[in-house]
Amino acid sequence: MFILFSLVCSAQLKCPPLGKINNDGRFNITAGIGPTLLYRDINYGRNVGFAGVLKGDYKIYKGLFAGIEGQFGMLNSYGKNYDVEESNLSATAERDARYVKNYYLAGTLNVTVYPGLFFVDEARDFRVPSIPTLIARGLYAGIGFGGIINQYDKLYRGYGVDSPSGRGEAEEVTDEAGNTTRKYKTPTRDLLWPVFNVGLSMPINKYSTVGKGYWSAVLNSQFNFAAGDQLDAYTVGSKGDVYNLTYLGLKYTF
Question: N or C: which end of the chain has fewer CB within 10 A?
Fold first, then answer.
């Protein structure tokens, strides 16, 4: 009996707090997918696109992370009543005939801060935290910069013909017969600065898994400000394009 009692006491002393072995992961990998919204020059009636995200982060200290992110997706902006003839519009209806559909590839470097993690030592959790506590720890904000490559798929700038008409980056193309035409330039490249992120990361199996890694659900909203003005293919009287990407994703911490 004395030997059994000694073994039980020894095991209790060496037993780590619940979840302790899962709280030391310094690397995060996140994959997500969600809608994009393109803003600025076109008086849009529909501006929803679609994109996927792959992001890697490294924990520098507690709630401070540095990372790199890649995106691939589509940006759309279709003017109000762009496909309706003027004669079919009411006297008060607005019409913007311009539209653009893009495929894009973007990459950013970023810093992310989880303010709630600076005030706790997760390795000392002896029980599963409450939902409000998990939310407080999972809220984050970030800032970054990067670049974007933009490939026009469909484009109409208006003013009579489907051509640059001086309103956007263009290039001259000469065929074998020597005829020269002006076409919109694609792909275009631009700097993204700043890039803002806000979101919430909620653990799924952090306090139940016996392994050293765990999964979290992520909801993120990102605002990307282009230094130039090529995303909607229209540059007259504008100050740069902006697009939002809101995605739902899964994060693996190890």
Answer: N
